[in-house]
């Protein structure tokens, strides 16, 4: 048997598997890439072959156009593919639609590159599956003990209550265009919200893709197609960058809301002038990260993008061999 340490390495382009001659989520164009999910810091255009779930390939197509790579190779969750001398399979990661952990086996050793993940239920993502392995590669976006997320229902009830209390105010909700937007919509439908969602133009295409793939978001109306004065008392969704720019200025009596894991940090909410911060995250919080290390049970843990130090410290205390991978090019703000 050979240990993944011997055949997985950090290159400038990203994590590289030598027996399979491919990179996972490379930050530069490469000949063959395995992509864990569609967020822009993981899924970049310009690769030769891209191996990913069909959903991730469809997301990249919407974001970058049909020429985003030279060759697309879809792989279903649970399917196994031989790539060179490595075997690849994809396991659900629970992060967003199509998100997957790359399970890579070679010569009796196995590594799981989990990409981004969370453990809470999400109507738009298949639930995370723990896969036994020798090395587990984990994100560390919210890897500090202060990050403990409340329930999604408790957060969304705050929004529904505010709509009841402030009937004349347009509730402008900042959401990342891929994942958070559609998750918030589906969770609000589950809680009984039946009115249309009014959306910024930048959200339309991705919502259409979710609809095409069978996710029922309900009635969606582009803000550009209605009289803005009629939006008092309604929910308007927009990317976070639009909350404070000219686009939102003509909306009536705006109450600014934002749904993000970062809303747990008050200074961030204030910075964005958010009146109603909703702590809704698509990443594992501190407790979920630690629970996941235990569920997976890998003796060795590699830690990347985020608060590597805190998670490395606690992993070693819990008896794992831990190593911080200094992978560059991963932004903390996309789609958390
Ligand atoms: Zn992500
Ligand atoms: Zn990420």
Mean pLDDT rating:
96
CATH homology superfamily of the largest domain: Ribonuclease Z/Hydroxyacylglutathione hydrolase-like
**Number of beta-strand segments:** 19
Lateral strand order in the biggest sheet: 7-8-9-10-11-18-19
Number of helices: 8
CATH topology descriptor of the largest domain: Metallo-beta-lactamase, Chain A
Secondary-structure arrangement, i.e. CATH architecture of the largest domain? 4-Layer Sandwich
Runs with pLDDT <50, length 5+? none
Alpha-carbon Rg, integer: 20 Å
Largest sheet: 7 strands, mixed
Bound molecules: zinc ion
Strand content: 25-35%
* Order of helix and strand elements from N to C terminus: HEEEEEHEEEEEEHEHEHEEEHEHEHE
SSE order and pairing:
Layout: H1 4-7, E1 8-11, E2 14-17, E3 22-24, E4 32-34, E5 47-52, H2 54-64, E6 69-74, E7 80-83, E8 86-92, E9 100-106, E10 109-113, E11 135-140, H3 152-165, E12 170-174, H4 180-190, E13 197-199, H5 201-212, E14 220-222, E15 235-238, E16 254-259, H6 266-271, E17 276-278, H7 286-296, E18 300-306, H8 308-317, E19 321-324
Parallel strand pairs: 3-4, 4-5, 5-6, 10-11, 11-18, 12-15, 12-16, 13-14, 13-15, 16-17, 18-19
Antiparallel strand pairs: 1-2, 2-3, 7-8, 8-9, 9-10
The chain binds zinc ion (2 copies).
């Amino acid at each position: 048997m050979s240990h993944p340490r011997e055949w997985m390495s950090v290159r400038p382009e990203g994590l590289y598997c030598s027996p399979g001659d491919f990179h996972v989520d490379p930050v530069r164009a490469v000949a063959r890439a395995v992509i864990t999910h569609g967020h822009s810091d993981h899924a970049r255009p310009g690769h030769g072959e891209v191996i990913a779930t069909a959903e991730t390939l469809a997301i990249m197509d919407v974001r970058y156009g049909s020429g985003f790579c030279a060759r697309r190779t879809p792989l279903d969750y649970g399917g196994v593919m031989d790539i060179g001398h490595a075997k690849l399979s994809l396991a659900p990661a629970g992060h967003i639609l199509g998100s997957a952990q790359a399970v890579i086996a070679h010569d009796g050793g196995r590594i799981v590159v989990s990409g981004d993940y969370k453990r809470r239920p999400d109507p738009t993502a298949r639930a995370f599956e723990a896969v036994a392995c020798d090395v587990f590669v984990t994100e560390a976006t919210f890897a500090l003990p202060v990050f403990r997320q409340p329930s999604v229902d408790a957060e969304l009830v705050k929004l529904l209550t505010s709509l009841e209390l402030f009937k004349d105010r347009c509730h402008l909700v900042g959401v990342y265009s891929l994942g958070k937007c559609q998750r918030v919509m589906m969770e609000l439908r589950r809680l009984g919200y039946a009115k249309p969602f009014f959306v910024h133009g930048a959200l339309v295409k991705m919502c259409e893709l979710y609809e095409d793939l069978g996710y029922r978001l309900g009635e969606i109306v582009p803000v550009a197609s209605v009289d803005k004065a009629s939006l008092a008392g309604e929910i308007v969704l927009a990317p976070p960058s639009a909350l404070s720019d000219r686009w939102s200025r003509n909306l009536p009596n705006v109450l600014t809301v934002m749904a993000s894991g970062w809303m747990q940090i008050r200074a961030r909410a204030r910075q964005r002038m958010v009146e109603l911060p909703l702590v809704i995250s698509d990443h594992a919080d501190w407790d979920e990260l630690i629970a996941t290390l235990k569920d997976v049970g890998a003796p060795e843990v590699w830690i990347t993008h985020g608060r590597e130090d805190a998670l490395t410290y606690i992993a070693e205390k819990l008896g794992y061999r831990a190593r911080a991978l200094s992978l560059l090019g991963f932004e903390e703000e996309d789609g958390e």
